[in-house]
What does this fold into?
Amino acid sequence: MRGWPVRLTAGDITVRPLTYSDAGPWRDARRRNAAWLRPWDATVPPGSDTRPSSFRSLVWRLHRQARAGTTYPFAVDVGGRFAGQVTVNNVVRGSAQFASIGYWLDQRYAGRGVMPRAVALVIDHCFTTAGLHRIEIAIRPENSNSLRVVEKLGLREVGYAPKYLHIDGDWRDHRLYGVTVEECPGGLLERLESQQPHE
It folds into this structure.
């Protein structure tokens, strides 16, 4: 389990393993943000296994994948309160050393720079401790909030993938963004914070 489990912090933001004890805050956040998140949430294509998954079974599955080294499921806390998730998916070792990242945030924390810092923490960890070489983020063209995250981090757009993921009930096009370890030698968090105005 190279690079896992781990707890990462930047200011009042902490990124840590998602746990069973997050059940209440996770359900509350998902319920309150259902309409806000629905256009961006992954869905199961017709004909696939559509049985609903409980939070407990979700965490159990993610932890099993983390033990196998294929997924790193992070919770995002702001000031000690649950605020969302960042998940490193599809970790490929061997000659690729690649992974993809997905994330969601409680709307009450939007616009405060939380997700750019959380994603920067996770990508920096993937490059330094987990030993990955490349990270990719796929975003629907209409998702302006998510596009703002990769813009703030300075990630390059590397492609366009028609019908890439099943989102909100249909196969959706995605813009693809990527970054390699060579592109951010000082780390993405350092790059991000160097661009922020100091008060």
In short: Residues 8-195 form a domain with the Aminopeptidase fold (CATH 3.40.630.30).
